[in-house]
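Before relying on records like the one below, remember that each one covers exactly one chain. Contacts with other chains, cofactors or solvent are not represented anywhere in the record.
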Amino acid sequence: MRILLAEDDPLIADGVTVALKQSGFVVNRVAGGRLACASLQAEPPDILVLDLGLPDMDGMDVLRFAKRHAPQTQVLILTARDSVDAKVHGLDHGADDYLTKPFARDELLARLRVLERRLGNAATATIAVGALRLDTRQQEATLDGAPLALSRREYMVLKALVENVGAIQTREALESRLYGWGEEVASNAIEVHIHHLRRKLPAGFIKTLRGIGYMVPRP
């Protein structure tokens, strides 16, 4: 799940980025409205976490831009504007949720999970494929009831595959789920994660379509 964080306060941005990455989200952050708009147009994220008080552009203008140019992107406003009128104004103009500062980390993560489910990537907190179960709240996986020891990125690759059972996921699509802008990605990074997953999963659980990508077949 890719998140664009538009927040100019470095302390808040640092804290939110760390919390989101620890929870398995891929985070790209910008400190201004114009950069946010450019990012939305070039590579729309799944969720935009938007501060309204950006230095170069009002956040409401960014919200309107997002609704025009990235209509599938869910928008969570994260702001100090805590009046009822401000909340109503933001929601009426297309925001999908509204959280005021200061906020609790767990509440932010819970609201993002709701938006994630709304996108249709996880209809429930549990994803099941055969004997495999993924708990998307706890970021845990079990096979036949036994815990699977997965690294964060192994879990994210597996989640991307089982969320899209029967559909091919290209290497580029998987990389976009795991790495943010500017992160150096080894040419065989996805292949390494797939190799490690196959050692922990039943034979044939993940299929390779040579030159195309990977897929978990329908049971």
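The CA atoms of residues 49 and 76 lie 5 Å apart.
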